[in-house]
Write a structure and sequence with these properties.
By secondary structure, the chain is of the alpha+beta class. The chain has one domain: YefM-like fold (3-Layer(aba) Sandwich), CATH 3.40.1620.10. Helices cover about 45% and strands about 15% of the residues. The chain contains 4 helices and 3 strands. The chain has a 3-stranded mixed β-sheet with strand order 1-2-3.
Length: about 90
């Protein structure tokens, strides 16, 4: 059994998810109290989720997205393209 705190989980998320993918169960604690369990999903659970989603789509409870995520356009410039020095100088004048 592996129990880790939230902060450590956040810092090493990829490492712990690799362990989960390999079949290990991770318990997450907050102030020495276990609050969550992260484990690999079984085939039976995946089938149950897929069945439920299909039923919800067919009944109209859920709707499928109109566009793929990759088709969405950003409304603003990415942060890396912003000229911080210029913006700072402009704000001081």
């Amino acid at each position: 059994m592996t129990a880790i705190g939230i902060k450590l989980l956040k810092t090493n998320l990829s490492k712990y998810f690799s362990s989960v993918k390999a079949g290990k169960t991770i318990y997450v604690s907050d102030r020495n109290e276990i609050i969550a369990e992260i484990r690999k999903v079984s085939i039976n659970e995946i089938n149950k989720i897929e069945k439920t989603l299909t039923e919800d789509f067919n009944s109209g409870l859920l709707t499928k997205p109109q566009r793929k995520f990759s088709e969405l356009k950003l409304k603003s410039k990415p942060i890396s393209k912003i000229d911080w020095k210029k913006n700072y100088k402009d704000s001081k004048s």
